[in-house]
């Protein structure tokens, strides 16, 4: 199936606004009703425009977490209404709370940075 030119434009708009652009605005910009827009977007992308926007917004929040540890700052910068909204979305995407998730990432990063693999040491064939 060929991609309609409008779908590329819409995806670029969602990414450029870090998932915070309103779906109604996008539908109006491509001169479709919200219902038509949602149906056509889902047919072509595989998820609803709202779900896609939420994923993009969450990915942006994860990028921000590399520069700050304050959840309230991440939530505000990523466009969430407040910290509790961010935590709710975080749990939806990771099944974890941010502090547990980032601790796990830190531990795993440390493990893989410092892991010494010795050739043949774990080899059971000798």
Automatic annotation (TrEMBL):
Residues 4-104 form the HTH araC/xylS-type domain. InterPro entries: AraC_XylS_family_regulators (IPR050204), Homeodomain-like_sf (IPR009057), HTH_AraC (IPR018060). SMART domains: HTH_ARAC. Keywords: DNA-binding, Transcription, Transcription regulation. This is AraC family transcriptional regulator. Gene3D superfamilies: Homeodomain-like (1.10.10.60). It comes from Niallia hominis. SUPFAM superfamilies: Homeodomain-like.
């Amino acid at each position: 199936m060929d991609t309609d030119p409008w779908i590329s434009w819409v995806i670029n708009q969602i990414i450029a606004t870090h998932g915070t652009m309103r779906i109604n605005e996008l539908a109006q910009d491509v001169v479709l009703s919200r219902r038509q827009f949602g149906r056509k977007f889902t047919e072509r992308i595989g998820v609803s425009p709202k779900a896609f926007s939420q994923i993009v917004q969450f990915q942006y929040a994860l990028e921000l977490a590399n520069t700050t540890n304050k959840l309230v700052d991440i939530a505000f910068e990523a466009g969430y209404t407040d910290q509790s909204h961010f935590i709710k979305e975080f749990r939806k995407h990771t099944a974890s709370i941010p502090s547990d998730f980032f601790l796990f990432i830190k531990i795993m990063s440390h493990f893989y940075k410092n892991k010494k693999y010795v050739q043949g040491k774990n080899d059971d064939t000798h």
